[in-house]
TrEMBL record:
Coiled coil: none annotated. This is Group 2 family glycosyl transferase. SUPFAM superfamilies: Nucleotide-diphospho-sugar transferases. Keywords: Glycosyltransferase, Membrane, Transferase, Transmembrane, Transmembrane helix. It comes from the Bacteria. InterPro entries: Glyco_trans_2-like, Nucleotide-diphossugar_trans.
Length: 401
């Protein structure tokens, strides 16, 4: 009986990991074949294009802010309908000087708020969204300072809001400076897979589940203020919008460029912070996992929850396989257990040793990256249990594109 329980745990836990990382993406690819985004859209010269408020929180963004503002001002969207709201989260560099100059040059289009106390991105965006009510904004575009949109990207997002049931449209974020010496390529690979998965979820069910956060549009009527203690604001906004009804899609033509950190330690800290926020969101939106929510529940389980529980499944798979080795003499168990230990312990160590010698092997780095991100989930969960003390963030090191 103990053997049967151990075998069941091993098979189910292993299947959960394989399903969310391999089988679910394959299912999305299969179901999305031959599909394209449907429904009416605004023409680029349509006078009914919605009034847009771009919302951006900035903390010490002097390296990229000038470039960001130039990209926004160069957008192929009616200037009289594009308003930019920037909140400086107690910046101590030249961020405030840069923004004050732009606000003086474009007083009717650029609205700058130099906050004197650190609050965190969600609190800043909450206040900017409130300020945007003054122009009766129909759509809010929430963006980060280091994400650079192509000229047509804003239009490509906004054109879909002609369909009243569309409440959120995500963009296609790609990176422009991967570091071969770090994990930039691995992070970009992950981002590319996420962009594709979200696009396919939107095609199939209209359930793009949580934008990547750097550049996405949300119908103003579906915006919900982020409460204190929430770290992953983009997912919160998306799930609150789903609760109110409507569809979310991803537009691959809305291309944006973003630098990706190549530093594993820095990326690990960012993932820990995101993980803490994910578990907070899971506790908040657990009711959306019930079958009555249909496709939303299915996507939530498949794309998010099973991944967030990944460390549990990995530990169960490893420990149950160790138990099977003790209970049965079949050669398959020691072979599988040896393979697991090679992946979990030897490969990351080997990759680290090669890295110290200046040798970078992408497949070894993928495995190390995968394990590091699952360790980040564990640390993030511990932080969540302890309680999130603040949602103030420190941007990753910026580079000029």
């Amino acid at each position: 009986m103990i053997f049967g329980i151990g075998l069941t745990i091993f098979l189910l836990s292993s299947f959960a990991v394989v399903y969310t990382y391999v089988l679910y993406p394959l299912l999305l690819r299969l179901l999305s074949q031959g599909k394209a985004l449907q429904g009416s859209t605004y023409a680029q010269e349509d006078p009914d294009l919605p009034v847009l408020a771009v919302l951006m929180a900035a903390h010490n963004e002097e390296l990229v802010l000038e470039q960001k503002m130039q990209h926004l001002l160069a957008a192929e969207y009616p200037a009289q309908k594009l308003h930019i709201y920037v909140g400086s989260d107690c910046s101590t560099d030249a961020t405030n000087d840069i923004m004050q100059a732009y606000a003086a040059q474009y007083p009717s289009r650029i609205h700058f708020f130099p906050f004197q106390e650190r609050q965190g991105k969600p609190a800043i965006i909450n206040q900017l969204a409130e300020a945007a009510k003054a122009i009766s904004a129909e759509v809010l575009l929430i963006t980060d300072a280091n994400v650079m949109p192509k000229p047509a990207s804003i239009y490509e997002l906004l054109k879909h809001f002609k369909q009243r049931d569309i409440v959120l449209v995500d963009s296609n974020i790609q990176h422009y400076d991967s570091e071969a010496a770090g994990i930039g390529r691995n992070e970009q690979g992950y981002i590319s897979q996420e962009v594709q998965a979200k696009y396919q979820e939107g095609l199939i069910w209209g359930r793009t589940l949580g934008p990547l956060g750097g550049f996405f549009a949300l119908r103003a009527s579906h915006f919900s203020a982020i409460p204190k203690g929430y770290l992953v604001d983009d997912f919160y906004w998306a799930m609150r919008a789903f609760e109110q009804g409507g569809r979310a899609i991803s537009e691959l033509k809305a291309l944006c460029l973003e630098d990706v950190s190549g530093n594993l330690a820095g990326e690990f800290r960012r993932k820990v912070r995101i993980a803490s926020g994910n578990y907070k969101n899971l506790a908040t939106f657990k009711h959306l996992l019930l079958p009555k929510w249909g496709s939303l529940a299915f996507v939530f389980w498949s794309h998010k929850v099973l991944r967030w529980l990944g460390p549990v499944f990995i530990l169960l798979s490893w420990s149950s396989l160790a138990l099977l080795n003790l209970l049965d003499n079949n050669l398959i168990w020691p072979l599988l257990f040896t393979a697991q230990n090679l992946l979990f312990f030897i490969v990351p160590l080997l990759d680290w040793l090669l890295e110290q010698m200046g040798i970078h092997q992408k497949y070894l780095r993928y495995i190390r990256y995968f394990l590091a991100m699952n360790i980040a989930l564990v640390k993030g969960f511990i932080n969540y249990i302890k309680g999130v003390k603040t949602n103030v963030w420190q941007p990753t090191k910026r580079k000029l594109g």
